[in-house]
Design a protein that fits this description.
elongated; six-stranded antiparallel barrel; Pdz3 Domain; 7 helices; single chain; Thrombin, subunit H
């Protein structure tokens, strides 16, 4: 009985508490201080024409200057379904106009194996496009459309980019046309694309880059193209993780003429087979410098051979591996120190076949500078 009285007392207390704290002052009853005026008076901001600071004005300027030159590229390829039937499949990417003749620069992987290409301009008009030239090694391609009043973009210089400088990306991420994102140069580094190709001195940026941005421009604060957006580092869901990469525009400028006029790139070559030299090997061979590339063979009829560079003349063994020694030691090209095959490839990427470079060598103990006209790589195999 005592327990029952205690229970009833607790229920009464709980009910009284609910009545005085909740029900009595509930939302069903308006407070006596609420009034209903004839019109609501709010505080509005001043006109938007006065609302942009210097940074915002520059963002807007870069966008307006370039948006008409950025295009959406739709590629259609044929794939096989489960029953081995041909099925059309679409892919999306970006690109940008480089001249008034309708040439558009984009990524190779945007147009690779395409049976049909369509380019949509920012004004909404669409045109069929033709592939003019491709450079798979640099993931670059040129397509062309016939359209009036095209506005070419200004190609800048990617030589002296600095980590921390402001950059902008314009493209069509996930098909969302005309999107601007902003960030900085996060790093300059060599990266490997999914198909195994390497991008030398790739521009890493935290400007948001997503599927559909590929082939679009990366711009500096003046609105000049400094890179071609090409890939992202993602966690497997193919969306931006704040790490995107762009091909430096100077790499593209070095091959544009070949792509437009020949449809391919005349890859330059020095026409030599070489061996990297380190201090230990230099001492063992009695070389005049403790770094560089020792010419093992100057390919007969190749660029180096025509310029008078010499390969090895004496057989020796490096461990159990036979080599030819006594050739010229390459230490620089155009004043840039060369101490590995990777650096040599980097220098070659700045040129095309037909260019003349100044090769610094040691012939014995004598330092010499030899002008070499670069040939085409496939002619010097």
């Amino acid at each position: 009985m005592r327990f029952l009285r205690s229970l009833i007392f607790a229920i009464v207390l709980a009910a009284a508490f609910f009545y005085f704290t909740t029900y009595r002052h509930g939302s069903l009853h308006s407070a006596n201080w609420v009034n209903r005026p004839q019109q609501v008076e709010i505080t509005e901001a001043a006109g938007s024409s006065e609302g942009f600071d210097a940074e915002e004005q520059n963002n807007i300027s870069v966008y307006r200057k370039n948006i008409a030159s950025v295009v959406n590229i739709t590629s259609r390829v044929m794939t096989f379904d489960f029953f081995y039937g041909l099925v059309p499949q679409e892919g999306q990417g970006s690109g940008f106009v480089i001249d008034k003749e309708g040439h558009i620069l984009t990524n190779y992987h945007v147009v690779a194996e395409a049976r049909q290409l369509e380019v949509r301009l920012h004004n909404g008009k669409s045109y069929k496009a033709t592939i003019v030239g491709t450079d798979k090694a640099h993931d670059l391609a040129i397509v062309q459309i016939k359209a009036p009043n095209l506005l070419p973009m200004t190609l800048g210089d990617s030589t002296n980019l600095q980590v921390g400088q402001k950059v902008y990306a314009i493209g069509n991420p996930f098909g969302l046309a005309g999107t601007l994102t902003r960030g900085i140069v996060s790093s300059i580094r060599q990266v490997h694309e999914p198909d195994g190709l390497e991008i030398d001195e790739a521009i890493q940026t935290d400007a948001a880059i997503n599927p559909g941005n590929s082939g679009g421009p990366l711009l500096n604060y003046r609105g000049e193209v400094i890179g071609i957006n090409t890939m992202i580092a993602s966690n497997g869901v193919e969306q931006s993780a704040g790490i995107g990469f762009a091909i430096p525009v100077n790499t593209a400028k070095a091959v544009l003429n070949d792509l437009v006029t020949l449809g391919r790139v005349r890859r330059p070559a020095l026409g030599v087979r070489t061996m990297p030299i380190d201090p230990e090997l230099a001492e063992e061979l009695g070389l005049a410098a403790d770094y560089g590339l020792l010419i093992v063979q100057a390919i007969p009829g190749g660029s180096a051979d025509r310029a008078g560079l010499r390969g090895g003349t004496e057989r020796a063994y490096l461990g159990n591996f036979p080599i030819m020694i006594g050739g010229d030691l390459v230490v620089a090209i155009d004043g840039e120190k060369v101490d590995s095959q990777q650096i040599l490839d980097h220098v070659m990427n700045k040129h095309r076949a037909g260019d003349t470079v100044k090769v610094t060598i040691f012939r014995g103990k004598k330092r010499m500078e030899v002008p070499v006209v670069l040939g085409e790589a496939r002619e010097q195999v």
